[in-house]
């Protein structure tokens, strides 16, 4: 989404225009563009995301005689009707076998690695995966499971919107769920450190939360991401926000190209740990339930709905049921 802001300042030339932005309701201001002359009166917004709603902008004009500041303008961003799809939903109810069903309808089943069959435990809703150390559930990385839009540049890409979440009851820290190759190019990971503080890795940037969860109790971890920031919710509460200043494309391979010393192929979604057998310290010990991935940013109220085992409004996807038919008529001959 593109946008622009315009203003006019009258005074002795030359006039220098400095556009300033505030994301905390005017408490602090950051200069985003400085230019002298006519063209400085316009600020072009190359990308506007929903997360920018409420951002304030103002123009500071100065010349040799002094400076003046405009009143602040507040940016209002409204979502356009469009696609809101559920990309993955593992209910984690399996208690045998090595395949976990995908309830999203998109055909992304999970596969168990590290033991001969699922061990089930009482979950937040129904059953849950009981994951001992070095046991991992992987989901093949079909192209539409990766919430990114890839342009011509193979190394840089614009981040699309997504929301990823799971219930976890941890006995020891480790990776809860993540997508991408196990190196700096991994796309995102939600995990817990040794003292059960949630952490997130995305786009070669790390967020470590001061919030802690209780061992042996169910907690909901959720991240939402757009082109500007990644947000961490713990038990439905926004605890941390990390600006996204980098754009990297994770390596993408199929499961058939797995290296011999690795549990799961590159760029797969993994639950409970790393795909790399050499990196065992990342393995989660505990239970995981209700793993979900959406291709849009959930609002806090929608996250609360999901936590209650509900579903946010979906549209435009192949897992959305049709609306009730209307205007039916019959002709008898």
Structure description:
With 333 residues, the chain is mainly β. It folds into two domains: 3-74, Immunoglobulin-like (Sandwich), CATH 2.60.40; 86-307, Jelly Rolls. Helices cover 2% and strands 37% of the residues. The chain is built from one helix and 23 strands. The protein has one helix at 300-307; strands at 3-6, 16-22, 30-36, 42-45, 56-63, 66-69, 73-74, 86-90, 99-100, 110-113, 120-122, 127-131, 136-139, 162-172, 174-179, 188-192, 198-202, 205-208, 219-225, 229-234, 237-243, 269-271, 285-294. The strands form four sheets. Strands 8, 11, 12, 14, 19, 20, 21 and 23 form an eight-stranded antiparallel beta sheet that branches. It has an eight-stranded antiparallel beta sheet with strand order 9-10-13-22-15-16-17-18, with no helix packed on it. It is elongated and about 80 Å long. The N and C termini lie far apart (54 Å). Residues 142-159, 181-185, 248-267 and 276-281 have low confidence and may be disordered.
Number of domains: 2
Helix content: under 10%
Cα-atom radius of gyration: 24 Å
| Portion in beta strands | 35-45%
- CATH level 1 name of the largest domain: Mainly Beta
CATH topology of the largest domain: Jelly Rolls
**Reported CATH architecture of the largest domain:** Sandwich
* Beta-strand segment tally: 23
Query: What coarse outline follows from CA principal-axis ratios?
Result: elongated
What is the number of helices?
1
Low-pLDDT residue spans: 142-159, 181-185, 248-267, 276-281
Main beta-sheet annotation = 8 strands, antiparallel
